[in-house]
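Dear Dr. H.,

I hope your travels went smoothly. While you were away I took the liberty of generating a structure for the chain from your last submission, since the lab meeting agenda had it listed for discussion. I wanted you to have the full record in hand beforehand rather than looking at slides cold. The sequence, exactly as received, is reproduced here:
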Amino acid sequence: MSSSKPTTAIVTDSTSDLPKAEALELGVAVVPALLTVGEETLVDGVGISRPELYARMPDISKPVTTAAPSASAFEEVYEKALTAGATKVISIHLSSKLSGMLNVAHQAALEFGKRIHLIDSEQVSLGLGFQVIEAAKHALEGLPFEAVIETARRAREKTKLIAFMNTLEYLRRGGRVSWLSAGLGNILQVKLLLEIVNGVVEQFARVRTRTKALDHMLEYARSWGPLKRLGIPHAAAPEAASALAEELSSVSQLSPMIVDVTTVIGAHVGPGAVGIIGMRA
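The corresponding predicted structure, in token form, is as follows:
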């Protein structure tokens, strides 16, 4: 790691599920997304706890909605990074096909000319977070700006995600998955496994039980080959996450990063959701 201050700053958003300690150590600036619960608009990770959100979701008449931060929020973070000594900023965000996050970041970036470079992660949660970690580590090592960009792009190509949700209702309410009919899983009592392909949520498989869903996820993850990074994001499902982590660590020799997803993601997946995210070596 270079002893001098890096000239490339890394920015992301709260849907990266990057642990605060990790972001602090790597010098990554995290712009929080927003969510509206009832009549309240709250800052992700600050305005409401995960348990409180999950307890309130079934009884809220209006669906919980989420939104990107304002352009001014991005401008403030970019300005701070450049004032602190960075000459350029790489801003890596949630898939543009799932959110307007990247569009808002682009509006803010226009104020700074070519000093800001935006990257569409085509992912969410640690699928985004792992790309940010790779870029930040290389920035700290003093790699040139273009090399750090290429590092993030390579990480994107190597990242896979598969997830399971107890119910599809919250995902349907959020309106981010055009093909989804919430009645599908409920009527047929089928559990859907979902993956992200080119930034879009796609149906991976249908199974009858949660146990079979988790087994299917493990089987798929094992097919990814040697991994450099492994993550288990979950929404109030620590036991399932720990079980998946134990199974995968015995095969991959990695210690998986287990994260309780941020409230903005939790609002879409609902309690009980769990996923596996891997970045190939």
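Two observations you may find useful: The longest strand covers residues 200-207. The mean pLDDT is 90.

With kind regards,
E. W.
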